Protein backbone atom coordinates (compact mmCIF):
# COMPACT_ATOMS: atom_id res chain seq x y z
CA UNK A 1 0.00 0.00 0.00
CA UNK A 2 1.24 3.45 -0.97
CA UNK A 3 0.35 6.65 0.83
CA UNK A 4 -0.70 9.52 -1.41
CA UNK A 5 -1.82 13.08 -0.79
CA UNK A 6 -4.82 13.42 -3.06
CA UNK A 7 -5.97 16.67 -4.60
CA UNK A 8 -9.76 16.37 -4.80
CA UNK A 9 -12.00 18.86 -6.56
CA UNK A 10 -14.54 20.66 -4.40
CA UNK A 11 -17.16 22.22 -6.69
CA UNK A 12 -18.84 24.60 -7.20
CA UNK A 13 -15.90 26.70 -8.36
CA UNK A 14 -15.58 30.45 -8.80
CA UNK A 15 -17.73 32.28 -11.34
CA UNK A 16 -14.64 33.43 -13.25
CA UNK A 17 -12.15 30.70 -14.13
CA UNK A 18 -8.81 31.17 -15.86
CA UNK A 19 -9.03 28.28 -18.33
CA UNK A 20 -5.57 29.02 -19.74
CA UNK A 21 -4.02 28.53 -16.30
CA UNK A 22 -6.16 25.41 -15.76
CA UNK A 23 -5.00 23.95 -19.06
CA UNK A 24 -1.39 24.48 -18.01
CA UNK A 25 -2.00 22.97 -14.57
CA UNK A 26 -3.72 19.83 -15.90
CA UNK A 27 -1.57 19.42 -19.00
CA UNK A 28 -4.65 18.79 -21.15
CA UNK A 29 -6.20 20.33 -24.21
CA UNK A 30 -8.57 23.25 -23.78
CA UNK A 31 -11.61 21.08 -24.55
CA UNK A 32 -10.60 18.34 -22.08
CA UNK A 33 -9.84 20.94 -19.43
CA UNK A 34 -13.34 22.40 -19.69
CA UNK A 35 -14.86 18.91 -19.34
CA UNK A 36 -12.80 18.28 -16.21
CA UNK A 37 -13.42 21.68 -14.65
CA UNK A 38 -17.17 21.68 -15.29
CA UNK A 39 -17.75 18.23 -13.77
CA UNK A 40 -20.14 18.98 -10.87
CA UNK A 41 -19.06 16.21 -8.48
CA UNK A 42 -15.86 15.80 -6.45
CA UNK A 43 -13.19 13.70 -8.14
CA UNK A 44 -9.49 13.02 -7.71
CA UNK A 45 -7.39 15.38 -9.83
CA UNK A 46 -3.85 14.66 -8.65
CA UNK A 47 -2.07 12.13 -6.45
CA UNK A 48 1.18 13.38 -4.92
CA UNK A 49 3.57 11.55 -2.65
CA UNK A 50 4.40 14.67 -0.61
CA UNK A 51 2.06 17.03 1.21
CA UNK A 52 4.02 20.04 -0.07
CA UNK A 53 3.43 19.07 -3.70
CA UNK A 54 -0.29 18.57 -3.08
CA UNK A 55 -0.53 21.95 -1.32
CA UNK A 56 1.25 23.57 -4.26
CA UNK A 57 -1.28 22.04 -6.65
CA UNK A 58 -4.17 23.41 -4.60
CA UNK A 59 -2.54 26.85 -4.54
CA UNK A 60 -2.17 26.91 -8.33
CA UNK A 61 -5.74 25.73 -8.85
CA UNK A 62 -7.09 28.31 -6.40
CA UNK A 63 -5.28 31.04 -8.31
CA UNK A 64 -7.11 29.87 -11.44
CA UNK A 65 -10.50 30.01 -9.71
CA UNK A 66 -10.89 26.31 -8.82
CA UNK A 67 -11.70 24.88 -5.40
CA UNK A 68 -9.81 21.78 -4.34
CA UNK A 69 -8.84 20.10 -1.09
CA UNK A 70 -6.00 17.81 -0.10
CA UNK A 71 -7.08 14.44 1.25
CA UNK A 72 -4.76 11.89 2.81
CA UNK A 73 -5.20 8.50 1.19
CA UNK A 74 -5.19 6.98 4.69
CA UNK A 75 -8.39 8.92 5.40
CA UNK A 76 -9.99 7.47 2.26
CA UNK A 77 -8.90 3.98 3.26
CA UNK A 78 -10.26 4.36 6.81
CA UNK A 79 -13.82 5.33 5.82
CA UNK A 80 -16.42 2.72 6.82
CA UNK A 81 -18.38 0.72 4.23
CA UNK A 82 -22.13 0.92 3.68
CA UNK A 83 -24.44 -0.20 6.50
CA UNK A 84 -27.74 -0.68 4.71
CA UNK A 85 -30.83 0.44 6.63
CA UNK A 86 -33.71 -2.03 6.43
CA UNK A 87 -36.26 -0.12 8.55
CA UNK A 88 -36.64 3.33 10.10
CA UNK A 89 -38.73 4.84 12.88
CA UNK A 90 -38.91 7.98 14.99
CA UNK A 91 -38.23 8.35 18.69
CA UNK A 92 -38.21 11.14 21.23
CA UNK A 93 -34.42 11.28 21.32
CA UNK A 94 -33.50 10.78 17.67
CA UNK A 95 -33.83 8.66 14.55
CA UNK A 96 -34.17 4.91 14.98
CA UNK A 97 -32.56 2.73 12.34
CA UNK A 98 -32.54 -1.01 11.87
CA UNK A 99 -29.26 -2.18 10.34
CA UNK A 100 -28.04 -5.61 9.40
CA UNK A 101 -26.28 -6.00 12.76
CA UNK A 102 -29.08 -4.61 14.89
CA UNK A 103 -30.89 -1.36 15.84
CA UNK A 104 -29.16 2.00 16.08
CA UNK A 105 -30.33 5.44 17.18
CA UNK A 106 -28.97 8.79 15.98
CA UNK A 107 -29.62 11.44 18.68
CA UNK A 108 -30.89 14.78 17.43
CA UNK A 109 -27.85 16.59 18.87
CA UNK A 110 -25.50 14.53 16.66
CA UNK A 111 -23.85 16.35 13.72
CA UNK A 112 -25.27 14.63 10.65
CA UNK A 113 -24.04 14.86 7.05
CA UNK A 114 -26.23 13.41 4.30
CA UNK A 115 -24.94 12.69 0.81
CA UNK A 116 -27.61 12.21 -1.85
CA UNK A 117 -26.62 9.96 -4.77
CA UNK A 118 -29.12 9.94 -7.62
CA UNK A 119 -27.75 8.76 -10.97
CA UNK A 120 -29.43 9.83 -14.22
CA UNK A 121 -32.50 8.01 -15.41
CA UNK A 122 -31.92 4.51 -16.77
CA UNK A 123 -33.49 5.47 -20.09
CA UNK A 124 -30.43 7.55 -20.90
CA UNK A 125 -27.44 5.18 -21.26
CA UNK A 126 -24.02 6.75 -21.09
CA UNK A 127 -22.15 7.57 -24.26
CA UNK A 128 -19.33 5.32 -23.08
CA UNK A 129 -21.61 2.28 -22.76
CA UNK A 130 -23.12 2.86 -26.21
CA UNK A 131 -19.66 3.30 -27.73
CA UNK A 132 -18.45 0.06 -26.13
CA UNK A 133 -21.34 -1.88 -27.65
CA UNK A 134 -20.87 -0.34 -31.10
CA UNK A 135 -17.12 -0.92 -31.02
CA UNK A 136 -17.52 -4.55 -30.00
CA UNK A 137 -20.14 -5.07 -32.69
CA UNK A 138 -17.85 -3.65 -35.39
CA UNK A 139 -14.90 -5.73 -34.24
CA UNK A 140 -16.88 -8.95 -34.25
CA UNK A 141 -18.38 -8.30 -37.66
CA UNK A 142 -15.00 -7.38 -39.14
CA UNK A 143 -13.37 -10.52 -37.76
CA UNK A 144 -16.24 -12.71 -38.97
CA UNK A 145 -16.11 -11.19 -42.46
CA UNK A 146 -12.37 -11.78 -42.78
CA UNK A 147 -12.47 -15.35 -41.50
CA UNK A 148 -15.45 -16.64 -43.40
CA UNK A 149 -14.79 -14.58 -46.53
CA UNK A 150 -11.51 -16.44 -46.83
CA UNK A 151 -13.31 -19.78 -46.55
CA UNK A 152 -15.85 -18.84 -49.19
CA UNK A 153 -13.15 -17.60 -51.56
CA UNK A 154 -11.28 -20.85 -51.16
CA UNK A 155 -14.41 -22.80 -52.02
CA UNK A 156 -15.10 -20.72 -55.15
CA UNK A 157 -11.54 -21.03 -56.44
CA UNK A 158 -11.58 -24.80 -56.03
CA UNK A 159 -14.91 -25.05 -57.81
CA UNK A 160 -16.01 -27.41 -55.13
CA UNK A 161 -19.70 -27.12 -54.42
CA UNK A 162 -19.27 -29.03 -51.19
CA UNK A 163 -16.71 -26.55 -49.93
CA UNK A 164 -18.98 -23.67 -50.87
CA UNK A 165 -21.87 -25.24 -48.97
CA UNK A 166 -19.64 -25.79 -45.98
CA UNK A 167 -18.54 -22.17 -46.19
CA UNK A 168 -22.14 -20.93 -46.12
CA UNK A 169 -22.92 -23.21 -43.18
CA UNK A 170 -19.86 -21.98 -41.32
CA UNK A 171 -20.89 -18.38 -41.93
CA UNK A 172 -24.37 -19.03 -40.59
CA UNK A 173 -22.91 -20.69 -37.50
CA UNK A 174 -20.51 -17.84 -37.01
CA UNK A 175 -23.29 -15.26 -37.18
CA UNK A 176 -25.20 -17.18 -34.52
CA UNK A 177 -22.10 -17.33 -32.36
CA UNK A 178 -21.49 -13.61 -32.89
CA UNK A 179 -25.03 -12.79 -31.74
CA UNK A 180 -24.47 -14.93 -28.65
CA UNK A 181 -21.26 -13.03 -27.89
CA UNK A 182 -23.08 -9.72 -28.22
CA UNK A 183 -25.81 -10.94 -25.90
CA UNK A 184 -23.25 -11.86 -23.25
CA UNK A 185 -21.52 -8.51 -23.67
CA UNK A 186 -24.76 -6.58 -23.24
CA UNK A 187 -25.69 -8.64 -20.19
CA UNK A 188 -22.28 -7.89 -18.64
CA UNK A 189 -22.68 -4.19 -19.33
CA UNK A 190 -26.16 -4.25 -17.86
CA UNK A 191 -25.01 -6.14 -14.77
CA UNK A 192 -22.02 -3.85 -14.32
CA UNK A 193 -24.18 -0.72 -14.37
CA UNK A 194 -27.19 -2.19 -12.56
CA UNK A 195 -26.23 -0.59 -9.25
CA UNK A 196 -25.70 2.75 -11.00
CA UNK A 197 -29.43 2.99 -11.48
CA UNK A 198 -30.25 2.82 -7.75
CA UNK A 199 -30.35 6.06 -5.78
CA UNK A 200 -29.35 6.14 -2.11
CA UNK A 201 -28.68 8.46 0.83
CA UNK A 202 -25.53 8.09 2.90
CA UNK A 203 -25.93 9.33 6.49
CA UNK A 204 -22.49 10.10 7.96
CA UNK A 205 -22.22 10.61 11.72
CA UNK A 206 -20.13 9.71 14.74
CA UNK A 207 -21.25 7.29 17.39
CA UNK A 208 -19.20 6.16 20.41
CA UNK A 209 -16.12 7.86 18.99
CA UNK A 210 -16.29 6.06 15.64
CA UNK A 211 -17.45 7.29 12.25
CA UNK A 212 -20.57 5.48 11.04
CA UNK A 213 -22.26 5.37 7.65
CA UNK A 214 -25.91 4.34 7.36
CA UNK A 215 -27.27 3.94 3.84
CA UNK A 216 -30.90 4.39 2.81
CA UNK A 217 -31.20 2.63 -0.54
CA UNK A 218 -33.94 2.97 -3.14
CA UNK A 219 -36.26 -0.02 -2.99
CA UNK A 220 -35.30 -0.67 0.64
CA UNK A 221 -36.51 1.05 3.79
CA UNK A 222 -39.66 3.15 3.58
CA UNK A 223 -39.28 6.67 5.00
CA UNK A 224 -42.97 7.18 5.80
CA UNK A 225 -42.35 6.84 9.59
CA UNK A 226 -40.32 10.05 9.28
CA UNK A 227 -43.23 11.82 7.60
CA UNK A 228 -41.66 11.64 4.13
CA UNK A 229 -44.28 10.78 1.53
CA UNK A 230 -43.78 9.78 -2.09
CA UNK A 231 -40.39 8.74 -3.41
CA UNK A 232 -37.71 10.85 -1.69
CA UNK A 233 -34.98 9.17 -3.74
CA UNK A 234 -36.19 11.13 -6.76
CA UNK A 235 -36.39 14.41 -4.83
CA UNK A 236 -34.19 14.84 -1.76
CA UNK A 237 -35.96 18.05 -0.69
CA UNK A 238 -38.68 16.10 1.11
CA UNK A 239 -36.20 14.26 3.32
CA UNK A 240 -34.17 17.43 3.85
CA UNK A 241 -37.23 19.37 5.04
CA UNK A 242 -38.08 16.56 7.48
CA UNK A 243 -34.61 16.23 9.03
CA UNK A 244 -33.23 19.77 8.95
CA UNK A 245 -35.42 21.24 11.76
CA UNK A 246 -34.67 18.28 14.03
CA UNK A 247 -30.86 18.40 13.82
CA UNK A 248 -29.06 21.60 14.91
CA UNK A 249 -26.01 20.46 12.92
CA UNK A 250 -27.11 19.04 9.56
CA UNK A 251 -26.23 19.53 5.93
CA UNK A 252 -27.15 17.89 2.64
CA UNK A 253 -24.62 17.34 -0.16
CA UNK A 254 -26.58 17.06 -3.41
CA UNK A 255 -23.66 17.35 -5.84
CA UNK A 256 -24.06 13.70 -6.85
CA UNK A 257 -27.67 14.05 -7.98
CA UNK A 258 -28.26 13.40 -11.70
CA UNK A 259 -24.54 12.81 -12.20
CA UNK A 260 -23.05 9.79 -13.92
CA UNK A 261 -19.72 9.31 -12.19
CA UNK A 262 -16.74 8.48 -14.36
CA UNK A 263 -13.30 6.95 -14.35
CA UNK A 264 -10.47 9.34 -15.13
CA UNK A 265 -6.70 9.38 -15.41
CA UNK A 266 -4.88 10.77 -12.39
CA UNK A 267 -1.43 11.63 -13.66
CA UNK A 268 0.11 8.42 -14.93
CA UNK A 269 -2.43 6.23 -13.13
CA UNK A 270 -5.89 5.14 -14.10
CA UNK A 271 -8.43 5.35 -11.30
CA UNK A 272 -8.53 1.57 -10.56
CA UNK A 273 -4.72 1.42 -10.57
CA UNK A 274 -4.46 4.33 -8.13
CA UNK A 275 -7.06 2.83 -5.79
CA UNK A 276 -5.23 -0.50 -5.92
CA UNK A 277 -1.99 1.21 -4.90
CA UNK A 278 -3.74 2.93 -1.99
CA UNK A 279 -5.40 -0.29 -0.84
CA UNK A 280 -6.16 -3.43 -2.90
CA UNK A 281 -9.55 -3.54 -1.16
CA UNK A 282 -10.47 -0.29 -2.92
CA UNK A 283 -9.67 -1.49 -6.44
CA UNK A 284 -13.18 -2.75 -7.15
CA UNK A 285 -14.90 0.04 -5.24
CA UNK A 286 -18.16 1.02 -6.88
CA UNK A 287 -18.01 4.44 -8.51
CA UNK A 288 -21.03 5.69 -6.57
CA UNK A 289 -19.42 4.48 -3.34
CA UNK A 290 -16.21 6.33 -4.19
CA UNK A 291 -18.16 9.47 -5.10
CA UNK A 292 -19.98 9.47 -1.75
CA UNK A 293 -16.69 9.04 0.10
CA UNK A 294 -15.06 11.93 -1.74
CA UNK A 295 -18.12 14.12 -1.19
CA UNK A 296 -17.94 13.46 2.55
CA UNK A 297 -14.17 13.98 2.73
CA UNK A 298 -14.45 17.38 1.05
CA UNK A 299 -17.49 18.56 3.05
CA UNK A 300 -17.02 16.76 6.37
CA UNK A 301 -19.41 16.76 9.30
CA UNK A 302 -21.31 20.00 10.00
CA UNK A 303 -20.26 22.05 12.97
CA UNK A 304 -22.54 22.12 16.00
CA UNK A 305 -24.05 25.33 17.27
CA UNK A 306 -21.70 27.49 19.31
CA UNK A 307 -21.33 26.26 22.84
CA UNK A 308 -23.19 28.26 25.47
CA UNK A 309 -21.04 30.51 27.69
CA UNK A 310 -20.24 29.36 31.21
CA UNK A 311 -22.98 30.01 33.76
CA UNK A 312 -22.46 33.00 35.99
CA UNK A 313 -24.48 35.07 38.42
CA UNK A 314 -27.46 36.59 36.66
CA UNK A 315 -26.87 34.60 33.46
CA UNK A 316 -30.04 33.30 31.78
CA UNK A 317 -30.61 29.55 31.96
CA UNK A 318 -29.62 27.50 28.91
CA UNK A 319 -32.25 27.08 26.23
CA UNK A 320 -34.14 23.78 26.26
CA UNK A 321 -33.25 21.24 23.60
CA UNK A 322 -35.00 21.56 20.27
CA UNK A 323 -38.00 19.27 19.83
CA UNK A 324 -38.13 16.75 16.98
CA UNK A 325 -39.27 17.98 13.62
CA UNK A 326 -42.95 17.68 12.74
CA UNK A 327 -43.64 14.36 11.16
CA UNK A 328 -40.94 12.47 13.06
CA UNK A 329 -43.04 10.78 15.73
CA UNK A 330 -42.19 7.90 18.02
CA UNK A 331 -43.15 4.63 16.41
CA UNK A 332 -42.38 0.95 16.99
CA UNK A 333 -39.53 -0.50 15.01
CA UNK A 334 -40.69 -3.71 13.33
CA UNK A 335 -38.18 -6.26 12.22
CA UNK A 336 -38.49 -7.54 8.67
CA UNK A 337 -36.10 -8.66 5.93
CA UNK A 338 -34.90 -5.92 3.56
CA UNK A 339 -36.95 -5.41 0.41
CA UNK A 340 -35.35 -6.52 -2.83
CA UNK A 341 -34.24 -3.63 -5.06
CA UNK A 342 -36.24 -3.06 -8.19
CA UNK A 343 -34.69 -4.51 -11.29
CA UNK A 344 -34.04 -1.94 -13.95
CA UNK A 345 -32.65 -2.22 -17.45
CA UNK A 346 -30.32 0.72 -18.05
CA UNK A 347 -30.22 0.21 -21.82
CA UNK A 348 -33.85 -0.60 -22.58
CA UNK A 349 -33.04 -3.95 -24.17
CA UNK A 350 -35.57 -6.75 -23.94
CA UNK A 351 -34.45 -10.34 -23.55
Topology, element by element:
Elements: E1 5-9, H1 19-26, H2 30-37, E2 44-48, H3 51-63, E3 68-72, H4 73-78, E4 83-90, E5 94-99, E6 102-107, E7 112-118, H5 127-158, H6 161-192, E8 200-207, E9 210-217, H7 237-243, E10 250-257, E11 265-266, E12 269-270, H8 271-278, H9 287-299
Parallel strand pairs: 4-9, 7-10
Antiparallel strand pairs: 1-2, 1-3, 4-5, 5-6, 7-8, 8-9, 11-12
Please give a structural write-up.
It is a single chain. By secondary structure, the protein is α+β, with helices and mostly antiparallel strands. The chain has three domains: about 5-75, Ribosomal Protein L30, Chain: A (2-Layer Sandwich), CATH 3.30.1390; about 80-120 and about 195-260, no CATH class; about 130-190. Helices cover about 35% and strands about 20% of the residues. It has helices at about 20-25, 30-35, 50-65, 75-80, 125-160, 160-190, 235-245, 270-280, 285-300, and strands at about 5-10, 45-50, 70, 85-90, 95-100, 100-105, 110-120, 200-205, 210-215, 250-255, 265, 270. The strands form three sheets. It has a seven-stranded mixed β-sheet with strand order 6-5-4-9-8-7-10, with helices on one face. A hairpin with a 2-residue loop joins strand 8 (about 200-205) and strand 9 (about 210-215).
